[in-house]
Write a structure and sequence with these properties.
By secondary structure, chain A is of the alpha+beta class. In chain A, about 20% of the residues lie in helices and about 35% in strands. A six-stranded mixed beta sheet of chain B has the order 11-12-13-10-4-14, with helices on both faces. A six-stranded antiparallel β-barrel of chain B has the order 15-18-17-16-19-20. A five-stranded antiparallel beta sheet of chain B has the order 6-7-8-5-9. The chains are: A alpha+beta (about 130), B alpha+beta (about 350).
């Protein structure tokens, strides 16, 4: 399943978030590796729609049974959608990190940042 | 300093355990996953490597008396073949450690201590023991805990000696899978089971024999992660979190391990005074009534003021609630009392509940 774990159409960060273009917006979540390292996700804390987020800065918190981790935004922009379903059912992050487990959608304000993100091959190499 | 390895280190690697440094020991935090392992222990069986725990022995005439002067519980009130949970206190009544003491005979007391406190406990006991001096036997023992409703059957099938008579907090010696063990009906999960003390050379053989024998019962190797969530659901104290050198057993809700009518033990005077004066803080169990997960060191607030601190907390995999343990002023300790836990600057409502959080079904 190794290839399927890091879809080619996504971009990745060293903090183990992924970003996916969805029209003018960008959907954000955590990678397969991140959810695997965390273990069972039991709580997700996300910003409200309209909140400004900055590339590399914290936008939320994700907690597993054993640990608390910070979520970092891959891009600068404004939150345009929040996945309320995952807030109610955090195990979606484990079950479908690239689908039902997405976290927020943002409207990016700096188009140039997209190309600074890693592609799947680079990210997979980072994981070693 | 690189972490110490238990005799089962190679076994953990072979089984895909995720190894972490715990109290200076390299041990698996999980194998397949914390929640799956937690559930296996509650419903089937789980196997834990607890070889990092320390063992101290008092042997010879006067062994019971020497050990008894160091601990809060009373070895004179139990019989040979019984074990007791106990505090090892400093003169102020705080915990040096919490321990389990095994009475082989009045001339032979065997004590299991926490890994993080091994050296400290032994030095403490050696300094304060009168008559018989303790011997550190930690290097001579590995320890495997088999826990869960299926644990008894699995161990019994590998042991020629009948174990029905070995009730809770009783022990015997005998061969399990051909390995000589102290077979103790104890644990730290809230489920039935055994803790098996064996020579390090036999640990791997015993480990794989238990896994093989328990296959049909659904036994899984289990890590420290679920050991913590299991014990939290039972409100079993963890040294360094819920109990420490400043909180006393009376404050920790462990009055039952303190026998104040015993002639003497270190810390007794402080506890007698504290009992007479009344305790001002108490270790309680609570659940959050709003979304969030409590964690150790989060402040406990009442009317916006910090009045206590969370000592342990998690999302309980069996109870399916955000549960925590913490010290609060006595006035807030009654079941149903409400307060807030400060989570990342935000007050989250909590309510004191009956413990253990989980009761065996």
């Amino acid at each position: 399943m190794a290839n399927g774990e890091y879809p080619k159409d996504l971009k990745y960060t060293k903090d183990h978030e992924w970003a996916k273009k969805s029209g003018a917006a960008v959907q954000i979540g955590v990678t397969f590796h991140a959810q695997d390292a965390l273990g069972s996700v039991v709580y997700v804390e996300l910003p409200k729609v309209g909140t400004a987020v900055t590339a590399g800065a914290q936008f939320g918190v994700i907690e597993s049974t054993k640990a608390v981790s910070e979520l970092y935004s891959p891009l600068t922009g404004k939150v345009s959608k929040v996945n309320d379903t995952v807030v109610g059912n955090p195990s979606l992050v484990n079950e479908a990190p690239y689908a039902g487990g997405w976290l927020i959608e943002i409207e990016p304000s700096n188009a140039g940042e997209w190309d600074t993100l890693m592609d799947a091959d680079t990210y997979t190499k980072l994981l070693g | 300093m690189s972490p110490r390895l238990t005799p089962l280190n190679a076994a953990h690697k072979k089984l895909g355990g995720r190894l972490v440094d715990f109290a200076g020991w390299e041990l698996p935090v999980q194998y397949a996953g914390l929640v799956a392992e937690h559930e296996a222990v509650r419903t089937k069986a789980g196997l834990f490597d607890v070889s990092h725990m320390g063992e101290v022995e008092f042997k010879g005439k006067g062994a019971l008396e020497a050990a008894n002067r160091l601990i809060t519980n009373d070895l004179a009130r139990i019989t040979d073949g019984q074990a007791i949970y106990s505090g090892l206190l400093n003169p102020s009544g705080g915990f040096v450690d919490d321990i389990v003491a095994y009475r082989f005979s009045p001339e032979h007391i065997f004590i299991c201590v926490n890994a993080a406190n091994r050296e400290k406990d032994f030095a403490w006991m050696h300094e304060h023991a009168t008559g018989v001096k303790p011997v550190d036997r930690s290097e001579e023992f590995a320890q495997i805990a088999v826990q869960g409703p299926k644990a008894f059957g699995i161990v019994q099938r590998l042991c020629p000696k009948p174990l029905e008579g070995v009730g809770t907090y009783r022990f015997t010696t005998g061969s399990v899978a051909g390995v000589d063990c102290i077979i103790s009906r104890t644990g730290y999960t809230g489920e039935d089971g055994f803790e098996l003390y064996c020579p390090p050379s036999g640990a791997e053989k015993l480990w794989f024999a238990l896994l093989e024998e328990g296959k049909g019962d659904g036994i899984v190797p289990a890590g420290l992660g679920c050991r913590d969530s299991l014990r939290t659901e039972m409100k079993y104290a963890l040294y360094g979190n819920d109990i420490d050198d400043v909180h006393t057993p009376l404050e920790a809700g462990l009055g039952w391990i303190v026998k104040l009518d015993k002639a003497e033990f270190i810390g007794k005077d402080a506890l007698v005074k504290q009992k007479a004066a009344g305790i001002t803080r108490k270790l309680i169990g609570f659940e959050l009534t709003e979304a969030g997960v409590p964690r150790a060191h989060y402040p406990i607030l009442k009317d916006g003021q910090k009045v206590g601190e969370v000592t342990s907390g998690t999302m309980g995999p069996t109870v399916k609630k955000a549960i925590g343990i913490g010290y609060v002023p006595t006035a807030l300790a009654a079941e149903g009392s409400t307060f807030h836990v400060e989570i990342r600057g935000r007050p989250v409502a909590a309510r004191v509940v009956k413990t253990p959080f989980h009761t065996r079904g």
